UniProtKB/TrEMBL annotation:
Matching CDD domains: EcCS_like
This protein's UniProt keywords: Acyltransferase, Transferase, Tricarboxylic acid cycle
GO MF annotation terms: citrate synthase activity
Protein name, entry field: Citrate synthase
Pathway in which the depicted protein is active: Carbohydrate metabolism; tricarboxylic acid cycle; isocitrate from oxaloacetate: step 1/2
Organism: Aureibaculum algae
NCBIfam families, per database record: cit_synth_I, PRK05614.1
Amino acid sequence: MSEKATLAINGKSYEFPVVKGTEDELGIDISSLRTSTDGVITLDPGFKNTGSCESAITFLDGEKGILHYRGYGIEELAEKADFLEVVYLLIFGELPTESELEKFHYDIQHQSIVDEDVKKILDAFPKSAHPMGVLCSLTSALTAFNPTSVDVRSEEAMYKSIVKILGKFPVLVAWTMRKKMGLPLNYGSTSLGYVENVLQMMFRQPNEEYTLNPIVVEALDKLLILHADHEQNCSTSTVRIAGSSHAGLFVSLASGISALWGPLHGGANQAVIEMLEAIKADGGDTKKFMAKAKDKNDPFRLMGFGHRVYKNFDPRAKIIKKAADEVLADLGIEDPILEIAKGLEKEALEDPYFVERKLYPNVDFYSGIIYRALGIPTEMFTVMFALGRLPGWIAQWREMRLNKEPIGRPRQIYIGKTLRPFIPVEKR
Ligand code: ACO
């Protein structure tokens, strides 16, 4: 007999089925709660205890520090796969064969032209605009130039929209950066690999050849893989909810970009570098900033520390810390910021405040250091996160549509005024 959970309320008791995932996670299926109990709901701000869907894409165990994409360990994927293979794996469920990968790459690269009129939209933004705002607007605007991408029901129509956005998004990323740097907007080449193409589009100068550095390619490839999916995080849940109204893929992704922008989520990578720079400018006293982070009357938090689900360590941070050391050594960069980062990490890992609250460095504590070493401007860091997270958002959106999930619409417990009579303005 399958397990049941019992709930007693108002003198009555109710039974709910318990669902078990393939990694033995347990969840109480309360989808019949409201109807069977005559209106009772659950209350869980921040959804710390709420599963919003059943998903076969990513498994993570925050206590044990485990992260798997479609059953493959993140450590193995970061070492052996390339980003495009991971993109395919996340979206379609299996690693591609050589011919599947070739076709996928071909389809993406041949969808990488963006309508010239998009440049006019980009042109209208001030140079000071934050790249995340620009990227979000341009991604949303792509819908207007590709109206057939909205009403996607068949798998074939979904595939077309997916390769379109995978082709055009890196162009938008590159253009967003180039606009900020005052460089001409260019295109890559269909003959280059996905990541190589991104780098060329971002960095090729109008007056010289761009030579790809294999160390830089590998570092970016790894970073994108590590950011590619993270199950039902804030931006992904946003994409799934926006898409659940059957809004098109591109605008659903634009909602995810907005959610990612915040410093408590993807914006943390920019915030980390800004924090490290502020510490350096202040004389490099990490202890002073540690004290600020622990002071409840001070809003300052140690950016890049703590995670909603990883309460032991972030497995991505382990990989990325090693990668940061390697990239800096390979490129011969000595960055005083890295020394401050290492000092902070050491102190935090030994400090009872951080130890008791299980606050460890997360993936973004080190990603910014690598982006910096690759010559990517600080304000672009969260955009790079979005580029990495794109396949995860797409995979989750596709799964939600194929599962025919209902529109996302949480309930609430109302705590406002009860019904009262209207008072005309002259009598208030
Ligand atoms: N610095 C100082 N104290 C912290 C920090 C931090 N970075 N993070 C959490 N705490 C403290 C809180 O003040 C709280 O203390 P209390 O129990 O005494 O009140 C306790 O640790 C628990 O913190 P919560 O905010 O409840 O933890 P939650 O799981 O809700 O938040 C979050 C996780 C948002 C990531 C938080 O740790 C944080 O703000 N970190 C800094 C921002 C950051 O690095 N974000 C990136 C996340 S990873 C990503 O998006 C890829």
